[in-house]
Each structure stands twice: as C-alpha cells, then as structure tokens.
C-alpha cells in the first residue's frame, strides 16, 4: 500500500482496497457464464469433428442425413472450426482470466461493469455470427479467406466478439493501473501480470484482422444491402492481414494454459515455481515475438518476396524459444513437487506427481502432447519443409496436438477445479474425470499421428471432403482406421466431459474441503528484477518489431493492391 502525504505534511496510508464477497460475486457470475457458453460451443463443435473424421475414413457420411439443417460438409467444417477454435477458446479464456486476475491481485475490478458489458457484447457478437453460419450463409471456414464472401452479419458478429474481448482486456488494464498506483513498489503478481500481457498481445494481434474486416470484408459484404458497387477485394493483402492476427491467435489460446502450467499447476502437486523471473521473461518474449511471424502461414503464397518469408521464419524460431524455456522450467517446478512427495531417481519421481487428481493429470497429459505439437510447429516453420506439409492433413494433425490438446486438455483440467469452485458443488466425479483426461490423451495421440502420417506420406489434402475424392487411395486405409480409433476415444472423452460438467452443475453434492484456486509460490521468494515488471521496453519493442516486420510489406501490398476480385460464394 502506498503512503500518501497530506497537505499538513503528515504521512498516512490510504484505506486498503479490499476484495469483498460482493465483488467476487460479480466476477464469478461473469466467469461462470463465459465458461458455460464455452462448454456449450465445444459440445456442438466437437460433434462436427466426429462427423468429418468419419466422412474422411469412409466409415459413415452423415451429411445426407443432416439435410436440410446442415447443407454441406463445408458448412459443418466451418461450424467445427469456428465453435472450437474461436468460441470455446475465447469464452473459456475470458472467464478463466476474469476469475484468476482478480484473485491474483486480491483487488476488485476497477470497473466491474466493463466486464459485464464485455460479456454482453461477446454474446451478441456470437449470436450475430452464428446465424449466417447455421443458415449456410457463411460457409467460409474459420479463416474466412477472401475472395470467399460471407453474409455481412458474419463479419459484424466477429467484430463484436473481438471488440467484446478487447473490453475484457480494458477492464483488466484499468484494474492493473489502479493496483499499480496503490502499490508502486511491489512487483505485480505473476498470474495477474501474465494475464495482462496475454490480453495486450491479443490487442496487438487483432489489429490485423480488424483492418481486414473493417476496410475490406464488411464494405464488400454490405454492398448488396445498401445497393452500392462493391469496392472489390485483394486476396493477398487480406491473407496478410489475417495472418498478422492468425499466428498470435494461437498464443492467445496457448498462454492461458501457460498461466496455469507456471502459476497454478506446481501447487497442484506440492511444487513451487522453479523460477518466477524466468516465467515472466517467457511472457514478455511472447509479447515481443508472437506477431511478426505470420508469413510462416504464407510460405506458399506468391507475391511475398522470399526474403520476407525468410525473416518471418527466423522470428518464428525466436518465438519457439520461450516454449523451450517453458518445457524445462515447468518440468523443474513439477519435479520439485514430486520430490517433496517422496519421488526419487532420475525419472522415477514422475510416478510421484499428483496423478490421482484429474485436474492435475489432464494438464500434465496436455503438456506431454504439446512436446509433439511443438516439434511439428517447428517443422512447419522451416520454410522448405513447409512445402511438404502445407495444406496437407499434417496441419490438422499439428493443430489437434496444440489447440486441441495442449490448450483444450489443459482447459478441461482447469475446469475440474474452476467449475466446482464456481458452483460450490463437488466434482462429478473424480474417476470419470480421470477417464476423460486419459481417453482424450490417447484419442488425440492416435488421431494426430494418423493425420500427420497421411499428410507426410501421401500428401492427403486438408479441408477436403475426402470421402468423395476421385483420387481416394486404399493405401490410406491403415491411417484412416487409426484416426477412427482416435475419434472413437475422443467421442467417449468429449461425452464424459459434458456429462461431468452437467452433473457437477446440477447435482449439489457437498465438497469435502472447499475448493480454492491453486496458486504456486516461487522457490526463491526474492522479488523478480524490476525490468521484468516494466512494460515500456517490451511493449515498445513489440510494436517496433511489428512495424519492421510488416510495415514495408504492407506498404507494398497496399500500394500495389488491385481490388479486382468480387466476393464469391463457392458453397
Ligand atoms: Fe502452429 C499451423 C508453426 C505452435 C495452432 N498452428 C497451425 C494451425 C493452427 C496452429 C490452428 O510455421 C493451422 C492454421 C490454419 O488453419 O491454416 N506452431 C508453429 C510453431 C509453433 C506452433 C513454430 N500452433 C502452435 C500452437 C497452436 C498452433 C501453440 C495452438 C494453440 N503452425 C506453425 C506453422 C503453421 C502452423 C508454420 C503453418 C502450417 C501450414 O503450412 O499451413 C511453436 O510455438 C511451437 C513451440 C513449442 C515447443 C514445445 C514446447 C513443449 C512444452 C511442453 C513441455 C512438457 C514436458 C512434459 C516436457 C517447442 C512447453 C513433462 C512431462 C512430465 C511427466 C513432467
Ligand atoms: Cu503460426
């Protein structure tokens, strides 16, 4: 608490800002509603995943039976991508963050109504974008590449969803600022700081897609509504703006998992944060390097000079670095815990981790899958090797290990303490939750192994209704069957998750001991150095790197833009 000097010269401490039960009530309500929407979105999104996988393997094509509700495979694929990758993640993150941010600062939100407004704007955005997707008027997949053009409400809805998530961030920034003024000398607590960094990263990232939607997609989509001539689209410019956003988007998904792995998970296995300063450094490095790497999604795009692809490749290896630090420091934090629990030996300690707790085991299993997902990412990022993997089934193999496992399985693990905490009910039930985590782990292992192999060995294309492809090859059958095994396990797992969530919500079983948010303590209680608690070098560095890595290319793309393309409906 800072000391204030009164006009009389007498120094008095200001009244401490206390976090009351009433403050927490609003926070928990907002967090709970966000998580509820996230889980509902995932339940529909995951179902479409099953449909797609079975179609690919020629096991069962459900699409004729879904008529007229769902018109095409591609409509299903759009729903799968948008509901899982955008809605499940964004809502879960906003809920989890709101909950954890306030607890970490132990201070009420500066303007709680901002968080309420944010949630409302996000829900309105979701509904506005969902309608055209459900009516087959926005079958543009989750990347909505022009010149495909959806109905305007799709873009409006997306805009509102993103603006809502910005407001979540603003609510945090005001609170952060207020806390800083009250505590000028203290280091911001790790969880609150890392959450704020993630939201700032998101703010910078979304500027790209905001430019694409506001200046290109919406004006073109609105033309028929208002009867003016559509200004036309430049696909390459738009893809570039999209991937400015698209890569940091994956860190917006991943970093909440890192918040938990660093700041919470060690406490769930009697461990400590091996190095709190290093954990901060990792988040600052993500702020710095997440955005200036987008061309690694455009290695195959003509019109972007090789030198820029090369620069983004080098920077991509830069952004792999904080994850490598994470691999070592998080494992060290967990090892401390395992040894405190009596673990011995070089590797035998692993058995002493808190595997009996589903919230813990889900997250540890997520980490293990991320080793493979991360390696695949670095392979994708290697410019020349990308030519072998790009647009093949390898890519869905990669992202089911990252967003589908590292992130989603971690969020399942978090839900196993967060939902009991929010409802006050005991988790339904521990062993089912264990089964859920393990079936997801093995399901994703088989599924992604199969898809990686299909892509690499046979160049099987992604985003294609393979069951109908004239080039379908029986040589794919072993991997397709492996993927079906994965899908079967994933279906069981997803069903278990929704059942556990539902029954935890509706059955008021009393908790043995009240659930609290796990909070890992640093091994070394010495405060982190000031430069790891200071925004300006990192934030300015991030902005400078974005300008340097995108400025010249965007200038050229805008200067030479030819808006020759009309928006088209290919579905
Ligand atoms: Fe990626 C494509 C490169 C990470 C998601 N990625 C995608 C797409 C998605 C996605 C959705 O360079 C498809 C986009 C589309 O629709 O077209 N990705 C990378 C790189 C990383 C990476 C370099 N990706 C992610 C994460 C994602 C994600 C995270 C979601 C959350 N990705 C690419 C590239 C493409 C791409 C190209 C374009 C492909 C193409 O051609 O289209 C890196 O961030 C990865 C670094 C990670 C590591 C792993 C560290 C491991 C840790 C775990 C430690 C745990 C241990 C276990 C040791 C180096 C931290 C302990 C166990 C005990 C028992 C204690
Ligand atoms: Cu990327």
How would you describe the overall organization of this protein?
It is a single chain. By secondary structure, the protein is mainly alpha-helical. The chain has one domain (21-559): Cytochrome C Oxidase, Chain A (Up-down Bundle), CATH 1.20.210. 68% of the residues lie in helices and 1% in strands. The chain contains 15 helices and two strands. A two-stranded antiparallel sheet has the order 1-2. Strand 1 (4-5) and strand 2 (11-12) form a beta hairpin. The longest helix is centred in the middle third of the chain and has 37 residues, at 190-226. The protein is globular and about 70 Å long. The chain starts with a strand and ends in a 12-residue tail after the last helix. The relative contact order is 0.11. Bound molecules: heme-as (HAS) and copper (II) ion. Heme-as is lined by residues 143, 250, 253-254, 296-297, 316, 319-320, 323-324, 326-327, 331, 334, 350, 364, 367-368, 370-371, 374, 377-378, 380-381, 386, 389-390, 395, 398-399, 402-403, 407.
């Amino acid at each position: 608490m800072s000391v204030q000097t009164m006009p009389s010269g007498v120094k008095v401490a200001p009244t401490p800002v206390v976090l009351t039960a009433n403050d927490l009530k609003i926070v928990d309500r907002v967090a709970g509603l966000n998580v509820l929407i996230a889980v509902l979105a995932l339940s529909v999104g995951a179902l479409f995943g099953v449909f797609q996988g079975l179609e690919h393997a020629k096991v069962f094509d459900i699409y004729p039976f879904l008529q007229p509700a769902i018109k095409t495979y591609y409509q299903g694929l759009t729903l799968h991508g948008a509901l899982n990758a955008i809605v499940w993640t964004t809502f879960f993150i906003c809920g989890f963050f709101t909950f954890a941010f306030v607890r970490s600062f132990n201070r009420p939100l500066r303007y709680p109504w901002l968080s309420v407004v944010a949630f409302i704007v996000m829900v309105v955005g979701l509904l506005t974008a969902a309608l055209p997707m459900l009516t087959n008027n926005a079958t543009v997949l989750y990347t909505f590449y022009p010149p495909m053009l959806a109905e305007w409400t799709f873009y409006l809805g997306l805009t509102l969803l993103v603006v809502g998530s910005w407001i979540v961030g603003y609510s945090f920034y005001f609170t952060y600022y207020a806390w800083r003024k009250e505590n000028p000398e203290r280091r911001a607590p790790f969880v609150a700081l890392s959450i704020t960094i993630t939201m700032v990263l998101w703010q910078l990232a979304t500027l790209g897609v905001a430019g694409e939607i506001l200046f290109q997609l919406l004006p073109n989509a609105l033309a028929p509504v208002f009867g003016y001539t559509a200004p036309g689209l430049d696909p390459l410019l738009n893809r570039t703006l999209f991937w400015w956003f698209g890569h940091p988007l994956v860190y917006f998904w991943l970093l909440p998992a890192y918040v938990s792995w660093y700041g919470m998970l060690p406490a769930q296995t009697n461990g400590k944060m091996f190095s709190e300063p290093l954990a901060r450094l990792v988040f600052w490095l993500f702020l710095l390097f997440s955005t200036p790497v987008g061309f690694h999604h455009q290695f195959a795009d003509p019109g972007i000079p090789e030198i820029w692809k090369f620069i983004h490749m080098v920077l991509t290896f830069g952004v792999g670095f904080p994850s490598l630090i994470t691999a070592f420091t998080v494992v060290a934090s967990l090892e401390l815990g395992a040894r405190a629990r009596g673990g011995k030996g070089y590797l035998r300690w692993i058995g002493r981790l808190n595997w009996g707790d589903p919230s813990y085991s889900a997250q540890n299993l997520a980490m293990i899958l991320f080793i493979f997902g991360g390696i695949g990412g670095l392979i994708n990022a290697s410019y020349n090797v990308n030519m072998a993997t790009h647009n093949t089934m390898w890519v869905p193999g990669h992202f089911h290990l990252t967003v589908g496992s590292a992130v989603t399985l971690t969020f399942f693990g978090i839900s196993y303490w967060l939902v009991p905490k929010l409802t006050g009910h005991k988790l339904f039930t521990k062993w089912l939750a264990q089964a859920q985590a393990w079936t997801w782990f093995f399901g994703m292992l088989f599924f992604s192994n199969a898809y990686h192999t299909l892509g690499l060995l046979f160049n099987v294309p992604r985003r294609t209704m393979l069951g109908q492809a004239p080039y379908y090859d029986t040589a794919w059958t072993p991997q397709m069957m492996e993927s079906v095994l994965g899908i079967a396990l994933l279906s069981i797992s997803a069903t278990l998750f929704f059942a556990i969530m539902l029954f935890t919500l509706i059955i008021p079983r009393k908790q043995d001991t009240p659930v609290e948010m796990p909070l890992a303590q640093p091994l070394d209680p010495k405060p982190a150095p000031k430069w790891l608690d200071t925004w300006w070098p990192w934030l300015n560095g991030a902005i400078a790197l974005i300008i340097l890595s995108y400025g010249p290319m965007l200038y050229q793309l805008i200067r030479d833009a030819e808006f020759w393309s009309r928006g088209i409906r290919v579905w």
